[in-house]
Amino acid sequence: MATQYEVEHGIKEAAAPTRRRQIDMSSFNSQLHQLSDDPSSPDAQRHNPHAVPTPVEMAGLFRLVQDQLSTLAQDAPDAANRDFLQSLFDGLEGDILNPPREVAGVSQEFLDALDRVPKKTLKPDDSCPICAEKFLDDKYPLVVELQCHHSHRFDMDCVGPWLQLKGTCPMCRTDLTKYDPRRKDTSDRIKKMWEREGKPAEDDEEEDDDPHGLYN
């Protein structure tokens, strides 16, 4: 699976990954593109553009990210990284038990517009808070800086899935959707879908997304 950097710069995929703990979100990206109503996604291919994702589908999306975090935590280099990964893992649990109606995080357009940190400005010990790998261990590091703080920097491949699902900074949990130009448009489209299916947005709190008790 090519990294985001390789995709952006037209670099052929390497024969083997250069980083031991690099996150692999190919399954997540594939499922997200099926469920998301984000037109800025390059692979948006929903079979029925008017369909609302089911609770089971949404829970599965969050579970994919949880599984990756759990895998990273198994060989975390230190307690601090393990605790951080556990906090992210726990932050997804509520969304699995009570899945949201829509993918409410940031859009692909938001990710594409994030500030890229030039390789020459990275220090030898700078590392991603999620995978704990040093940025410069990657031949082509794609490091992004979030709007909340200049020190909140991550590998794009690591932070992208969290941002697309939660829309918050993994470190300080600042809401970043307010910087997303497509966020409001997406919400408006989802509300129209609900109305077409007889599920007005204002009745959202009363709607039972889990009539069969799958998540209790």
UniProtKB/TrEMBL annotation:
Superkingdom of origin organism: Eukaryota
PANTHER family: E3 UBIQUITIN-PROTEIN LIGASE PRAJA, E3 UBIQUITIN-PROTEIN LIGASE PRAJA-2 ISOFORM X1
SMART domains: RING (SM00184)
Alphabetically ordered keywords of this record: Metal-binding, Zinc, Zinc-finger
A Pfam family: zf-RING_2
Keyword Metal-binding in annotation: yes
GO biological process: protein ubiquitination
Classification lineage: Eukaryota, Fungi, Dikarya, Ascomycota, Pezizomycotina
Organism of derivation: Diaporthe ampelina
Biased composition (Polar residues): 24-43
A single GO molecular function term of this UniProt record: zinc ion binding
Presence of the UniProt keyword Zinc-finger in the record: yes
InterPro entries the record matches: Znf_RING (IPR001841), Znf_RING/FYVE/PHD (IPR013083)
Gene Ontology CC, one term: cytoplasm
RING-type domain segment(s): 128-173
Residue stretches of biased makeup (Basic and acidic residues): 1-12, 180-201
Record's protein name: RING-type domain-containing protein
Gene3D superfamilies: Zinc/RING finger domain, C3HC4 (zinc finger) (3.30.40.10)
Region (Disordered): 1-52, 180-216
